[in-house]
TrEMBL record, chain A:
The chain crosses the membrane at residues 66-87. It comes from the Bacteria. It comes from Actinomadura harenae. Residues 1-35 form the signal peptide. This is Uncharacterized protein. The lineage of its organism: Bacteria, Bacillati, Actinomycetota, Actinomycetes, Streptosporangiales. Keywords: Membrane, Signal, Transmembrane, Transmembrane helix.
From TrEMBL, chain B:
Coiled coil: none annotated. GO terms for biological process: proteolysis. It comes from the Bacteria. Pfam families: PrsW-protease. This is PrsW family intramembrane metalloprotease. InterPro entries: PrsW.
């Protein structure tokens, strides 16, 4: 359980640091900014006197894919970290590890899903 | 996942049915009015079709043309649906059926009247199945979050799917059908007839004026679209809330149903935007991939989902709150949904215009930061309100659920006192699932999860209608870990 917790908190740190780096690196980099059209309220502006009708560039699919990837990693990492934190919070409301094992046994027996004689059936538990 | 609806008795769904029929009738009456106004509009050119929706943009052909105009086949199906719906209502008036037959006839009438509008959404999705498939993962993820994030008694998955389907098929379809007509009608009154003075300068000035008029026409049509969308979302949420009235219905229920409805609409709209804006890159700087990034990734929870959630939460608040505040709450929810959507869209466009005047578009910073930020920034105040509404609703739900769970606890019953202790505490509940997975494997954890869901459904149901749910819990308990896991 400690190892799992370690992996989760490590992953959470990587996700948070990655998100921070992405948020800071891009605004700090000296780049031109504008907005490609997104929705109904946007008005296309074509300037006849300028090259490419005043359009400097496009918001490309390649760059957008990087954004999609980053958001996916941050969201999934955030959810995993939040889930891990909630499980830890649940465990902290119970007594120490031997007591937690007993609490789980008591709970499962109360549900009726396992009887006092049922052996553990999970992987690596002699199933 | 919870599937309590399978075990519940057939319910008297008369209030939901009546509201659905009323909505269908009002919708058709308003559609006929839109048709009449469109028929009576001033024509801009002598060869213009009787209905503006049949005008084909000469630049848009093939599948793109189908996206921009209402296919004639769809229009005539809508007309046939109206005729058939009217015939069904006359038949019902003459034969006066009762019981299940009456219910079937009413739902059939609603389906016949509203169903054809869904063809517009289906046309978009089936014209571009690849784009639609790309939008599935994000949409499915948000639906899963909406389902799993409710903590206590959840909206049944079938109703969540129904809300999504209503948004995707009916809200999108009605929005386009109504606003397509409105665009032509407004254009007929607002746009001047094309003339040529012979002078190039005059022609250029006239062109500038025409562009301004076109933008005004689009603004009005878009506002019209948001009003129609909000009304359609509200109708779906109200009908679904009435179907759920045997359970504890609160702000979170409406919030979730509204968000799912908005998500459905956003799904089809995303396909449309990916195709449409992606094909106009030289004008707007956007590509299909960029629209996907905005609509199905960074901004997936914004727009229709956000405002649908606010509208749904507001309607549930009105339904469950004091009767004297009902009208005020409903109006506030509508004003937020329509005003918020229109305001955010306009403000985002205005912010974009300001940045255009100083800097050029495109590039990594623009794609990943500036464009999403400008679109999402105006929605931020509404997102804060939505979060506050959700947090308050979840707290109230937690307090109600804890009381209900403890009240249901009985030795040897569906919820024992030991189980109640764990059930009433979401972190402890998740801990039991993680612990069971570790000790007995995933099938056992799934069996525990199913039992907990059934117990929470029982606790959040009307005590008088809880018999079948109680039986379901006892059946799950009797199955045990192994058989429940095997059954899964």
């Amino acid at each position: 359980m400690t190892a799992v917790r370690g992996v989760f908190s490590g992953a959470a740190r990587v996700v948070v640091l990655g998100a921070l780096a992405a948020c800071l690196a891009l605004p700090l980099a000296p780049q031109k900014a504008s907005a490609c059209d997104v929705g109904y309220g946007y008005r296309p502006r074509l300037e006849l006197g300028k090259p490419h009708l005043g359009r400097g560039g496009t918001c490309s699919t390649g760059t957008s894919s990087v954004g999609v990837l980053l958001v996916t990693v941050v969201v999934l990492g955030g959810l995993a970290a939040a889930g891990s934190a909630v499980v830890r919070r649940g465990a902290s409301r119970l007594p120490g590890p031997p007591g937690r094992d007993q609490a789980l046994t008591d709970y499962l027996q109360a549900t009726g899903l396992v009887t006092p004689s049922s052996p553990p059936s999970g992987p690596g538990r002699g199933n | 996942m919870t599937g309590p609806q399978a075990a519940e008795p057939p319910r008297e769904d008369s209030p939901a049915r009546d509201r659905a029929l009323l909505f269908a009738r009002v919708t058709i009456a308003l559609y006929l009015l839109e048709l009449l106004l469109n028929l009576m509009r001033p024509h801009l050119s002598p060869n213009e079709p009787t209905l503006s929706i049949f005008v084909r943009d000469p630049g848009a052909s093939g599948s793109l043309g189908r996206l921009l105009s209402m296919p004639k086949a769809v229009f005539w199906t809508v007309v046939a649906g109206i005729v058939l719906g009217a015939a069904l209502q006359v038949y019902a008036r003459i034969t006066r059926p009762e019981g299940r037959r009456e219910a079937a006839l009413v739902w059939a009438t609603v389906a016949v009247l509203l169903g054809p509008f869904a063809l517009l959404a289906l046309t978009v999705v089936f014209s571009y199945p690849g784009d639609a498939l790309l939008c599935v993962p994000g949409t499915a993820f948000v639906l899963a979050v909406l389902h799993l994030g409710q903590r206590f008694g959840r909206v049944p998955l079938t109703l969540l799917a129904a809300a999504f389907g209503w948004g995707a098929l009916i809200v999108f379809g009605l929005g386009r059908a109504f606003s397509g007509l409105a665009l032509g009608t407004i254009g007929g009154y607002l746009l001047p007839r094309p003339t040529s003075s012979g002078s190039a300068l005059d022609d250029l000035n006239a062109l500038g004026g025409q562009v301004r008029d076109q933008f005004r026409m689009i603004d009005l049509a878009v506002l019209h679209l948001f009003v129609v969308n909000a009304l359609a979302v509200a109708a779906g949420v109200v009908v679904l809330l009435l179907l759920l009235r045997h359970r504890v219905v609160d702000v979170v229920t409406g919030f979730v149903l509204g968000a799912a409805t908005g998500l459905g609409c956003a799904f089809v709209e995303s396909v449309l935007f990916i195709r449409l804006y992606g094909s106009l890159t030289f004008v707007n700087g956007a590509t299909g991939g960029f629209e996907y990034w905005i609509r199905q990734s960074i901004g997936l929870l914004g727009g229709s989902v956000l405002f649908g959630a606010l509208l749904g939460g507001g309607l549930a608040l009105a339904l469950t709150g004091p009767r004297e505040n009902r009208t005020r709450t409903v109006l506030a929810a509508f004003a937020t949904a329509v005003g918020g959507t229109a305001g955010s869209e306009t403000l985002a466009g205005w912010l974009s215009k300001i940045t255009h005047e100083h800097l050029s578009a495109g590039g990594t910073f623009d794609t990943l930061i500036a464009s999403p930020a400008l679109w999402l920034l105006p929605q931020l105040p509404f997102a804060v309100v939505a979060v506050l509404l959700l947090v308050t609703g979840l707290r109230a739900r937690a307090a109600t659920a804890r009381t209900a769970i403890l009240a249901r606890a009985e030795p040897g019953g569906p919820i024992t006192s030991v189980e109640a202790y764990f059930l009433a505490d979401p972190p402890l509940r998740l801990w039991t699932l993680a612990g069971t997975w570790k000790r007995h494997g995933p099938a056992a954890a799934l069996a525990v999860y199913r039992l907990q869901c059934a117990q929470l459904d029982l606790a959040s149901s009307d005590p008088e209608a809880g018999g079948p749910l109680r039986a379901k819990v006892m059946r799950l308990k009797a199955n045990g870990l192994t058989r429940a896991g095997a059954a899964s």
